[in-house]
Sequence to fold (191 residues):
Amino acid sequence: MMLMTAGMAFALPMTQQEAFLNGNQSVTLSQGQSAVFNFDFVNQTNGATTDALGFLPGSSITSALLGVTISSADLLPERIVISSGAMDGDTKLLDKTLFLGNFSWFQMSPASKIFTIDLKQAGLEEYLKDGLIQVSVLAGDLCWNDFSLNEIGINMTSVAPVPEPGTMALFSVGLLGIAVYGKRRTNKMTA
Fold:
């Protein structure tokens, strides 16, 4: 979306959200198991329960937050490893270990928790500009490590690139030239 004011163009920030599971279903992971989610903000064919609309590749990313909701039925401490990479699968961009609960014999773990990871702060801004990113959730190698992944999603705010004034002027002159050519051609045919 663009706003024109006195010959100047301003791009308005657009927020896109893409999520999997959304609380309607969950994935249970036990020690050593993982789940992989391919976020595609450009195409709407990746099976996401909430799909992004309006993302333009090459947009400037102003914020990108990954949210993960984890729950534990046994209330024991859980070790969760979040990895993120480019869609080619060969480039690992983020590797973060999270803990649900603490490792104390006197205190039970909370039943569920929402973890938020700032992907822009983690240095993934350039990789998000194409709208494609892969996120893996792994149950760590602790004994009795099992948890449910209830929701995973990315909220991303972006600003689409705006053509420079020179480009807009050149485009306008081209349109004017086509209009003049069309008008002259129409006048010759009627004469």
Summary: The helical segments are 125-128, 165-190. Residues 173 and 179 are 10 Å apart (CA to CA). The longest helix spans residues 165-190. The chain has two domains: 11-160, 162-191.
